[in-house]
């Protein structure tokens, strides 16, 4: 069963992602907002995809505040984790945000919250994991 790491600081959103990904997508899901735990889990080699909240308020890594964009850069800049597909998620979706955040972060795709189309999220996850396996 593919393993997805959900990095989300809002408990309601985290639970919704977990339920959708687990029950609809049949994925094994781990949820955290702790940046050190994200890096540790991602480096373990057991993660097939990461859903990363853009905001991550009050999240710290190595003594400094980080957001989802920072975390994506850290993950994509590490040879152990750079190949893990990352989907950025945000509730603050405005025209042009998708392109801006993808370019800024190095993430592989972007999904706006709330989850209005569960199947679109599941399909995006499968597509990115398949692309990784084919590479």
Structural commentary:
The structure is a single chain. This protein has 135 residues and is α/β, with parallel strands linked by helices. It has a single domain, classed as Rossmann fold (3-Layer(aba) Sandwich). 43% of the residues lie in helices and 22% in strands. Helix 4 (97-105) links the parallel strand 6 (86-90) and strand 7. The mean pLDDT is 93.
Query: Could you please say which CATH topology applies here?
Result: Rossmann fold
CATH class: Alpha Beta
Rg from alpha-carbon coordinates: 13 Å
Tally of separate helices: 5
Number of domains: 1
Beta strand %:
15-25%
Report mean pLDDT, rounded to a whole number.
93
Give me the side-by-side strand order of the main sheet.
2-1-3-6-7
Offer a concise description of the structure:
With 135 residues, the chain is of the alpha/beta class.
């Amino acid at each position: 069963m593919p393993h997805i790491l959900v990095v989300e600081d809002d408990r309601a959103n985290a639970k919704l992602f977990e339920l959708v990904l687990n029950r609809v997508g049949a994925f094994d899901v781990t949820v955290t907002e702790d940046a050190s735990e994200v890096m540790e889990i991602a480096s373990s080699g057991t993660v097939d995809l990461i859903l990363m909240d853009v905001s991550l308020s009050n999240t710290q890594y190595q003594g400094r505040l980080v957001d989802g964009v920072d975390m994506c850069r850290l993950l994509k800049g590490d040879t152990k984790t750079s190949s893990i597909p990352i989907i950025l998620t945000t509730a603050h979706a405005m025209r042009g945000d998708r392109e801006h955040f993808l370019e800024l972060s190095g993430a592989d795709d972007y999904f706006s919250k709330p989850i209005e189309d569960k199947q679109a999220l599941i399909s995006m996850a499968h597509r990115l994991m398949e692309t990784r396996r084919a590479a």
